[in-house]
Write a structure and sequence with these properties.
With 111 residues, the chain is an all-beta fold. Helix content is 0%, strand content 60%. It contains no helices and eleven strands. Strand 9 and strand 10 form a beta hairpin. The chain is elongated.
Length: 111
């Protein structure tokens, strides 16, 4: 959005103010790896849309996310480390959050 703004209430002197619009909401379509045993670290490729460099991946309790790399607007890679104290069979909701919002969750299971 572009808006003309009068400077110091003088209608003859104007500036252009560019207002950023709301970025599109991200989506999460798939995880390349959907499970791992307790104590393991696994590489995961997350595929979706509107994935930008300003994002947060949440994999729930007892799963740490590191080495996050935005490959493209549709792909992110990361390492998921499952705590050794995680209970087998536990399902975690994985989401990505950007300035545009949060994705619907996908499931990552502790084996």
């Amino acid at each position: 959005t572009i808006q003309f703004v009068a400077i110091v209430f003088n209608p003859r002197v104007c500036a252009i103010e560019i207002l950023a619009g709301t970025p599109p909401a991200p989506t999460l379509a798939s995880l390349s790896t959907t499970s791992a045993p307790a104590g393991a670290s696994v590489p995961v490729t997350l595929t979706g849309t509107n994935l930008n460099s300003d994002l947060v991946i949440n994999a729930g309790p007892k799963i740490t996310v590191s080495n996050v790399t935005v490959v493209s607007p549709t792909q992110v890679t990361a390492t998921f480390t499952v705590a050794s104290t995680a209970t087998s069979g536990t399902a975690a909701n994985v989401t990505i959050t950007t300035a545009g919002g949060a994705t619907a969750p996908l499931t990552f299971t502790v084996q």
